[in-house]
UniProtKB/TrEMBL annotation:
Pfam families: Methyltr_RsmB-F, NusB. One of its GO terms (biological process) is regulation of DNA-templated transcription. The lineage of its organism: Bacteria, Bacillati, Actinomycetota, Actinomycetes, Micrococcales. This is 16S rRNA (Cytosine967-C5)-methyltransferase. Residues 1-10 have a biased composition (Basic and acidic residues). Residues 213-502 form the SAM-dependent MTase RsmB/NOP-type domain. Belongs to the class I-like SAM-binding methyltransferase superfamily. RsmB/NOP family. S-adenosyl-L-methionine binds at C305, A306, G307, P308, G309, G310, K311, E330, D358, D376. The active site is at C429. The keyword Methyltransferase applies. PANTHER family: NOP2 YEAST -RELATED NOL1/NOP2/FMU SUN DOMAIN-CONTAINING, RIBOSOMAL RNA SMALL SUBUNIT METHYLTRANSFERASE B-RELATED.
């Protein structure tokens, strides 16, 4: 069905013709298709998988589209419909609750998903109202039954009667406090909105930036590539672009190129591992660890939590240029295999070992054995919500308490594993203070030799500024640690603390 096209109203065109069926206009009204089109059906099936099987939308949707032959503009429509609906679910539920005559949790989950998809078409996409309503009613009829389809029709007409800005004003006015208002309008759980607001304030930023941050989480990021130094240059990588592929320079990292919407695997260097897909925030924190000032030996580097291997591959490329070696450790065997794959283009002899094991054991097994250590700690991922449409609704505060103990142990073990004078980078893709500053504070407070700390923070913003493209002003707070933000830097909200072992 690759020749099918979606019309300007978001409707899929030509599907029936391609299958040899009679088209809408050629049919008598009584025989017209009353079901839905493949893009909407695919989006619905993804939402069901996410809800019923705890699936990840970005793993379910691409193979489903391939299997069903949904391509081109239809695939783009299905993707925006599924991901946008998942991201904005909180906002749409608050609106739908005002249009449905019973609590939303008393609706059948498939019916609620149909309503959410309809709300996104009406309020969040440029699908004209009549097409959005009638196509969603068709979907409801096909997937949840004729009775519920009538209800979908009535509810979506109510939703469509009020323009989005007015809905948002209503939601804001009804919220009990400012953070709840931001959370509902910006479609995040309240506990996450509150944590992000605290993290903004903790970084010396204006908490009023919260709305901009939540909005940035609701915007799909562009695909960013890393040209791994010494393996391929950005100029060579650009030279590999097929006709029509756009590659823009990154905003911060000299290794970054931003892709304009095509498959990165069309680039030979991505296919063979000399380049990869990597957020610029991840690139600059790995570059900063490699650039942090160090006296004496600089021969052995360790990535303690390496899976799936993006930062390990960048570190290994840098290590190769500097005559150092890298050990990459990962606890999950399948992720350790991904690390080995990510490192496939690194010259022989640079990767000492891909170790599968618990990072908490390395410090005891190899005390003081490394010069630079990366702890890219397992975390809530609250800094990468824009990448994972459903994750904000899955996470709970309980996840946080489970992770922060592990984060402390991994950081402390990394300090054991680094030599005196060596550097540890503590990194999370979360700005939550409980996973960032509080972890580091606590570990440094507990690590005392004869009452004196054996490790101290060094200037992470200076290390970051040293690696960004020349002449670029990287805005950061005035603390020793560094926090990147989607709404400020256009990166994931990566946190970086650099720690030096001093005794
Ligand atoms: C944030 S991810 C690392 C991402 C990676 N650095 C990259 O850039 O591709 C954290 C990793 O830590 C791993 N992990 C969790 N607990 C661990 C432990 N106790 N020891 C080592 N690795 C662990 C997870 O399986 C996960 O792959």
């Amino acid at each position: 069905m690759s020749d099918e096209r979606r019309d300007s109203r978001g409707r899929q065109r030509g599907a029936a013709r391609a299958r040899g069926e009679r088209t809408r206009t050629a049919q008598a009204p009584s025989q017209r298709r009353r079901g839905s089109d493949p893009a909407r059906t695919a989006a619905f099936d993804v939402l069901r998988e996410v809800d019923a099987s705890d699936a990840y939308a970005n793993l379910v949707l691409p193979p489903l589209l391939r299997e069903r032959g949904v391509t081109g503009r239809d695939a783009a429509f299905a993707t925006e419909l599924a991901y946008g609906t998942l991201r904005l679910r909180g906002r749409y539920d608050a609106i739908l609750a005002r249009c449905v005559d019973r609590p939303l949790d008393r609706l059948d989950p498939p019916l609620l998903d149909v309503l959410r998809l309809g709300a996104h078409q009406v309020l969040g996409m440029r699908v004209p109202q009549h097409a959005a309503v009638s196509e969603t009613v068709g979907l409801a009829r096909e997937r949840v039954g004729t009775g519920p389809a009538q209800m979908v029709n009535a509810v979506l007409r109510k939703v469509a009667r009020t323009p989005l800005p007015e809905w948002l004003d209503l939601l804001r006015a009804a919220a009990p406090d400012a953070v709840t208002a931001s959370a509902v309008v910006g479609s995040h759980p309240v506990w996450i909105a509150r944590a992000l607001r605290e993290a903004l304030a903790g970084d010396g930023r204006d908490p009023a930036e919260l709305d901009a941050l939540l909005e940035a989480d609701n915007t799909a990021p562009r695909v960013t590539l890393v040209a791994r130094p010494g393996l391929v240059s950005v100029t060579e990588l650009r030279g590999q672009a097929p006709d029509g592929m756009r590659l823009d320079s990154g905003r911060w990292a000299p290794t970054a190129l931003v892709l304009g919407g095509q498959d990165p695997l069309l680039l030979p260097a991505v296919a063979d591992g000399r380049a990869g897909v990597q957020d610029e925030g991840s690139q600059v924190v790995a570059l900063a660890l490699a650039a942090a000032p160090l006296e004496g030996r600089d021969a052995r580097w360790l990535d303690l939590c390496a899976g799936p291997g993006g930062k390990a591959a960048l570190l290994a490329a840098l290590a190769a240029q500097r005559g150092a070696t890298l050990v990459a450790n990962e606890v999950a065997p399948h992720r350790a295999r991904l690390v080995a794959k990510a490192l496939r283009a690194v010259p022989d002899g640079v990767v000492e070992r891909v170790r599968t094991g618990d990072g908490r054991e390395v410090g005891e097994q190899e005390p003081g054995a490394y010069d630079r250590v990366l702890v890219d700690a397992p975390c809530t991922g609250l800094g990468a919500l824009r990448r994972r449409p459903e994750s904000r609704w899955r996470r709970t505060p309980a996840d946080l308490s489970a992770l922060t103990g592990l984060q402390r142990e991994l950081l402390s073990c990394a300090i054991d594993a680094v030599r005196v004078g060596g550097v540890v980078a503590y990194v999370t893709c979360s700005p939550h203070l409980a996973e960032t500053r509080l972890v580091v504070d606590d570990v440094l407070r507990r690590r005392r030799v004869d009452g004196v700390p054996d490790a101290e923070r060094i200037d992470a913003p200076a290390a970051l500024r040293a690696v960004v493209a020349p002449g670029v002003d990287l805005p950061l707070g005035d603390r020793a640690d560094a926090q990147l933000w989607p709404h400020v830097h256009g990166t994931d909200a990566m946190h970086l603390t650099l720690v030096r072992r001093v005794r």
